[in-house]
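User: Teach me something about this protein's shape.
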Amino acid sequence: GEALEVNQEVNCVTDFIHGCEDQLQKLKKQKEKGLLYGIPISIKDHINCKGHVSSGGMVKYLGQVKEEDSVIVQVLKHQGGIPFVKTNIPQSMINYDCSNPIFGQTLNPLNPQKSPGGSSGGEGALIAGGGSILGIGSDVAGSIRLPSSFCGLCGLKPTGNRISKQGVVSPLIGMQSVTGMLGPMARDVDSLALCMKALLCQEMFQLDPTVPPIPFNEQVRLRGTPM
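Assistant: First, the predicted structure itself:
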């Protein structure tokens, strides 16, 4: 409901992910409760979700309904998270704004005269507007960091190849010089840390053997905290 209200004001959601209710029922029956148990999670448009389009803001991708979840979405579900919406991006995603010919312009909920930043602008707008508490964005040259900054949020671009990018639509094929990365966006650093801890699990390392199987290191994180 919150997400709908925010979307009406700032146009940040591109699709609602069906099957959320079913997934919640399935989770309740599981003995093991994952680290993200019951948390609704918003997903940037170009990250594949089964039965949905990953448009990248481009008309040419509109006919391609994805047949399976990306690895990151599979892992989020494995950890009890509930992906519930897909969020807007700029056309081709290489942009600091958040507008495309399919879904139009996303506005900044803190000031509708301003941009939420890009390219994870739909995520920034939705979380800042109170429609989501945790989202997955992506960042090559600032696409998590810019909307986080513009919308007053916390965001993390993890080290290259730390998280699987299998099942993610990208208009940039073969660019090796700067690594694009998926990463969490939220209102506080603890939420980012919890999300990273949940993602860096056996499930991900098994689903994508190209990801180095290094679990989350709580000590390193805590060492970086000022006393």
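Now, about its shape. Residues 2-223 form a domain with the Amidase signature (AS) enzymes fold (CATH 3.90.1300.10). The mean pLDDT is 94. If you'd like, I can walk through any region in more detail.
User: That's plenty for now, thanks!
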